[in-house]
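Could you help me review a protein record that somebody else here produced? Do not assume that whoever made the record got everything right. The record follows directly below this note.
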Amino acid sequence: MSESKNRLAFWGVIVVIVLGLFAWLNRPAEVVDKASEKVEQAAPAKPQGLPVMASPVLVGVVVDDISAVGTVVANESVRIRTEISGRLTKLNFDEGQIVELDQLLVSLDDREHRAQLAAVNAELRTEKQRFLRLKELYQQKFISKEALDIQAGAVTRLAAMVQGADARLQKTIITAPFSGVIGLRKVSPGAYLEAGADIAKLEDLSSVKVDFRVPEVYLAKVRSGQVVNIVVDAFPDSVFKGNVYAIETGIDRETRTALVRARVSNEAGKLHSGMFARVSLVMSKKQNALSVPEQALWPQGTENFVYRVIDGKVSLTKVELGRRMPGYVEIVNGLSPGDVVVSEGQMKIRDGAPVMVLGGT
């Protein structure tokens, strides 16, 4: 009896499952459609195209320049040296001092030179008096013209000797030939100096010159007045501006370069002679020039292309390149202001493919 009840229960469960499955398979179509809509609404939206990075075409100033290295040179520079031998009696400057034009710098012992000048002056006065007496005698026809001329020559010779002695006396003092900064001295008071001995260096650094070389292929574009930007290692974050003012007349036969000289203001006194300079010579400036990131270029053979983004799709566009700059390149032809180009992701797209712009560079 118990076994019969279990069998009836088992077959009852089977019948319920079959009836339920039959009802599900024959449910109305509206229920199926609504369920599908709910599933679709719950599922996330699929992207409309391949993801890429894009950048707008930049419009700005493109500078055409030449890079070179050069050397900073003082506007004026001279070694203070003695012209005659003598004992140094006085130094009239401090090391590093700013001196003015004609300021007294050095004094040598001048006693001997003063004595020589006094002796020659005395002899000149005597010979002048003798010339006057002989002139009277000549007028009275007591002496010949030749005797008077000999005395006149003696006076002239002594006058020249006076000038020579005075010139030697003037060389016992040295004055500043121009305003500038005096450097470190190499002598001490009391030292005996030979003619030509170095005493110190004087430089005018109110403005400086920068000498650099330009390849001869660019020489036709270099002219006086062009702007140069100078950077030195001592002040890497500062740019010093100047202008070309002179170009060497000849070309170096070995390097095929021309020496160019620019003048740079140095009011702050930061630039010193001998500094290594990185020079950028501005050849021209182009206003409203177009440029794109360098990675936006898509070379094919000898030609260059970019992918323009137009209404969610990309268009492979041929472009003509101009000046290259760090990270960017000028576009001479092929693009217009307002265009957007793909800067990353070109490997996975083709002409006309739909894309989804994620951002820009």
